[in-house]
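task queued by scheduler; priority normal; single chain, no ligands, no partner chains; default sampling; output format set to structure tokens
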Amino acid sequence: MHTTVAELGRSQKQSHEEFEEIPVVHSVWKTAILFTLVTAVLFGIVYPLVVTGIAGVLFPRQAAGSLILKNGQVIGSELIAQSFTSDRYFHPRPSAAGNGYDATASGGSNLAQSNAKLVQRIQGDIDKLTAQNPGKPVPIDMVTTSGSGLDPDITPDNAYYQAPSVAKARGLSEDAVRALIAQHITPRQLGVLGEPRVNVLELNLALDKLSK
């Protein structure tokens, strides 16, 4: 029995239609779970370990937290401000991160510039500082908090503003204190990035050495 061309065509068409009707089974849940597991391993374990390892080799001090030692003991970090209340020391910027510049409460006050509470607080600080140093403009970073609330640095203007009271409290000449400040000014990175700054903890440690 011979198959005609027409019959062969109909047979192929029927087979093709039956093939098209076969549903493709695709599990969205399986794909989502696999994707989650793979990305969790890659970006939650592998990537952090690789970056930490590279940083530990190339920048061991920074990777360890830029810690500052005194007599072999860790007394702080270059990256986190500390509270200094005595007139014998330079003070960091005000903080909205709680007492003692608590790193677990890092953050700003989130108050707008028009907020009455913020305006009153800043004006009160300005009035207090102006009474202590009549005729001298108050540096802005002496009365405003940083975004993190943990800024370890102050501007050179801030440090120089505090120099007279620190010198008086320690019985040092103001020129000596100002010279110490100048030695601890960190310039802009690559000459263009950031602003000149002074690390408060490092300056206070140098101040203790100067007073001995």
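post-processing summary
- Residues 28-58 form the longest helix (31 residues).
- The radius of gyration is 32 Å.
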